[in-house]
Each structure stands twice: as C-alpha cells, then as structure tokens.
Write a structure and sequence with these properties.
Blueprint: E1 5-7, H1 11-22, E2 27-29, E3 36-40, H2 44-54, E4 63-65, H3 72-75, H4 80-89, E5 94-99, E6 114-118, H5 123-132, E7 136-137, H6 152-159, E8 165-167, E9 179-182, E10 190-193, H7 199-206, E11 211-212, E12 237-240, H8 245-250, E13 256-261, E14 273-277, H9 282-297, E15 304-307, H10 314-326
Parallel strand pairs: 1-8, 2-8, 4-6, 5-9, 10-11, 12-15, 13-14, 13-15
Antiparallel strand pairs: 2-3, 3-7, 4-7, 5-6, 9-10
Helix pairs in contact: 1-5, 9-10
The structure holds threonylcarbamoyladenylate (TXA) and magnesium ion.
C-alpha cells in the first residue's frame, strides 16, 4: 500500500473522507483524547479493517463514537444514570459501557453483549461523524501495544503504510485516552480506565460510589483488552516512587530521566533530563506524556526513568499509563 495522505479539515476534505467511511473504508481521525482509527461501527467489514490495520486481536473491543445524544439509542441501551453522565460530560473524554443493540456487529464488541460509547468533543471529528451519518468505531490509531498517538504525524509514522487517510486536527488537547465507566448496572458503576473525567466528578454526578476495576497480581486489569502491556515504548520504562534531580545527575548518562515538573537545580540541567511541564501542572503534563515518550523512545536511550506522579484525579490517569508503559 502507498503511504497515507494527510488531509486538513476543509469542508471538501471532510465530505470526501465521509464518503470513504460510508464505503466501509477507514480514516485516522483527531479527537481531544488521542487520535483514533475510525470506521463505520455498523459494518463488520469496516471493523475488521480497523483490527487488521492496527494488528489488534479481535478479542479487544472497539469504542463507538456518536455525534448526538439521539444516536446513543441506535447503538446502546441507556439507563437514567448513564444519561446523567452523558448530559454532564458529553461531548468529552468519557466512555460509557452499556448493553448493545443489534446495530452493532459482534466483531466491534469482541462478541460482548455490551458496547463502549463516547461522544467526542473535537469539532472536526464531530463533523465527520455527522457527515458519515453512521456511528464510528475507533480505537486509538497506534499499532497494537504501542503508545497512543496525539498528532497526525504520530499516526503517519507508525500506521502510514497500513492506512490511506489521515485527518489532521492538530495536537490532542487532553492527550490521554478517555475515562471508561461500566454503567450496565447504574447502581454499581465500575471505573474500567481512569482518564481526564475523574472518579470524583463521576461520583458527584451519580451520587453513588464508583468501584475501581479489579486488578490481577501484575497490575493488569481483568477488563477485556486491558492487558498491562499497552502503551509501551520499545525502550524499557522504569517508574520511581521518588526521583530526585541528584539521582538523575549521578545516574546512568545513557538513560533518559523524566520528571513531571522541572526539577529545581542550582547548576545546569544535563541534556538527558526531561520534564513534562515546567510547573508540574498535571493536565498539561498529561497532554505531553505520549509525545514525550515517543520522542524519548526515538532517542536511543538505554532506559527511561520516570518520576511517579502522585495525587488523585488526572494524576491517577497519568500513573495508569505510566504503569502500563513500564510493564513488560
Ligand atoms: O479516548 C479514547 O477512548 C480513544 C479515542 C480514539 O476515542 N479510544 C481508545 O480506544 O482509547 P482503544 O481501543 O484504544 O481502547 C478501548 C478500550 C478497549 O481496550 C477495552 O478495554 C474497552 O475500551 N472497551 C471497549 N468496549 C468494551 C466493553 N464492551 N466492555 C468493557 N470494555 C470495553
Ligand atoms: Mg488503545
């Protein structure tokens, strides 16, 4: 296959890409969380193309993206709790797991009777869903197991030879995949994946406690497709409960040392010391995490040593991705 072409979000390009989607082809799309690899969620053929292009096993279900609340009932069977969350956080980085309808092929949900649904906020992706006129299944647009992409260039770099169309919508503003909540039983919601919408925020809206997903001994989740080895750079990643600048300066010079905020240093900071955000702002750190991991992965370092983020909310999501990146 020839290399993928990258399209800007002009009305003409959007109409063209929507026609490709209606024909069952797949298109890499920008979202506020990470870039996705989209296809008609109601077409088993389109879903199969997504799995093939990613090299993703078909037992790992896809997320279905909709552009309006009316479309929810087309793919899922909502309940009052799920609708509360949808009204509070959509469009945005929250995915709800609900019983599926017959419109969604079994392949999209890996044979599960439930479906994961999200209404994204990225304006170009929303326009594309509307123009395509069908809900779009889209996993993150990375080869299976690698770090998720947060720019069109990331997608082109790793999937460029396996797909034909990439829609460029700039850098993802959130930078981490959506929060996933299992809402099949609205009285017992379960957080399957932490993200920018936090557990506290969800509990406040629902007025009930949200359980965390159960973990296997290795820290891997029991949710489908949530195995630990996910989001991993090729370079080994080591997480440190506490990492000081002194340790980094005296540590291996062939390794990269990554801090959440800029370390306080009296002298010059060595070139192999990095930080996610100068002030350690966690939302901004999250936005940059995947692109920094990709950059460091290309830097031929022997290892990437990372300071463990602490705290609740978005820190939980950052930590979750780092734990996965560090698991081999
Ligand atoms: O932010 C996001 O959610 C991005 C953008 C593109 O929207 N998408 C994304 O998709 O992260 P993906 O395929 O990389 O992760 C989807 C995960 C699956 O691995 C699985 O763990 C969970 O969603 N999932 C999907 N359907 C499910 C279901 N029916 N029950 C439980 N978990 C499900
Ligand atoms: Mg993914």
């Amino acid at each position: 296959m020839t290399a993928a072409r990258t399209y800007t979000g002009t009305p003409g390009n959007l109409a063209f890409l929507a026609r490709r989607l209606k024909k069952g082809e797949i298109v890499a799309v920008p979202t506020e969380t990470v870039y996705g690899l989209a296809g008609d969620a109601t077409s088993a053929r389109a879903c199969m193309r997504i799995f093939k292009a990613k090299g993703r096993p078909t037992d790992d279900p896809l997320i279905v993206h909709i552009a309006s609340l009316k479309d929810l009932e087309r793919v899922a069977v909502p309940n009052p709790g799920a609708l509360l969350l949808a009204r509070a956080f959509w469009p945005g980085p929250l995915t709800l797991v609900l019983p599926k309808t017959g419109a969604v092929p079994d392949l999209a949900t890996a044979g599960l009777p439930s479906v994961a649904v999200r209404m994204p906020s990225h304006p170009l992706f929303r326009k594309l869903i509307r123009l395509a006129g069908v809900p779009l299944a889209a996993p993150s647009a990375n080869p299976f197991g690698y770090v998720s992409p947060t720019s069109a260039a990331h997608v082109a770099k790793h999937l460029g030879r396996r797909i034909r169309y990439i829609l460029d919508g700039g850098s993802s503003s959130i930078g981490l995949e959506s929060t996933i909540v299992d809402m099949r039983n609205p009285r017992r919601p379960v957080l399957l994946r932490p993200g920018a919408v936090t557990k506290d925020e969800i509990e406040r809206v629902l007025g009930v406690r949200v359980a965390r997903r159960r973990k296997s001994p290795e820290g891997a989740s029991v949710a489908p497709g949530q195995m630990a080895r996910h989001y991993s750079p090729r370079t080994p990643v080591r997480l440190h409960a506490s990492l000081t600048f002194t340790e980094a300066r005296h540590g291996s010079s062939s390794a990269a040392w990554l801090f959440v905020g800029k370390p306080a240093a009296l002298g010059p900071i060595p070139a192999n010391v990095y930080w996610l955000d100068p002030l350690g702002d966690l939302r901004r750190a999250a936005r940059r995490l995947f692109s920094v991991l990709r950059e460091l992965d290309e830097g031929k370092f022997s290892a990437i040593h990372v300071e463990r983020p602490s705290g609740k909310g978005i820190a939980e999501a950052l930590l979750d991705r780092l734990v996965r990146a560090a698991s081999r």
